[in-house]
Amino acid sequence: MIVVEDVHKHFGGFRAVDGATLEIKEGSITGLIGPNGAGKTTLFNVIAGVLPPTSGRVTMAGEDITGLPPHTLFGKGLLRTFQIAHEFTTMTVRENLMMVPGGQSGENIVSAWFRRSAIRVEERALAAKADEVLEFLTIDHLADERAGNLSGGQKKLLELGRTMMVDARIVFLDEVGAGVNRTLLNTIADAILRLNKERGYTFCVIEHDMDFIGRLCDPVICMAEGKVLAQGTLAEIKANEDVIEAYLGTGLKNKVTA
Fold first, then answer.
1. Which CDD domains match (predicted)?
2. Which of 40, 95, 161, 172 would be 91's cystine partner, CB 3.0–4.6 Å?
């Protein structure tokens, strides 16, 4: 579904992404791992249109999407979440979800003046869909809670819920487990698996929790110093000498081998 071909992203003399090439297959849950500073989030930002690449090419289902802005990619079904959740803090959880779909009648000033009944019908439908999403994620009891009052894990579930309010084809999750307790992390993992199996979502997941990656992801791609270092099952990645060296350093690798 997504093909990244020799992508570079430079910030002055610093090469955050340095010739990355990889493929995310449709229907997969692909894991993206690597030590801090490997270029994982920068690569996400390039794919999702947050940053333009210095060079290279990104295609989605054969279409060149290199450098397209996030709102255009959103319309094509490519969505991403962030390491730190971005919620509308003073709005309710339900209202946060209702904000997601674009082209709503209430966004048009003429409709707001003369088509109020149509807007009310649309809002009732959005509220019903939001409640369905919250029930799917098992946080329907929080529908009327202000989003700013949620825990870190609940905010991550809310971000996942946003992707369900539109016809997402592929979702990029950036450290969805960061700062989340184990119980909620299991809830998030269950939701991702259900979305993948029942609704056909494709996911690419950046995560440092190897148990989480092992439960969800196949294949797993490891990056280091802006490049793709290895790809395979998690067991194959863990046994890869280059991956061990990237995480532990040459000296520690030799101690582990010994």
1. ABC_Mj1267_LivG_branched
2. 95
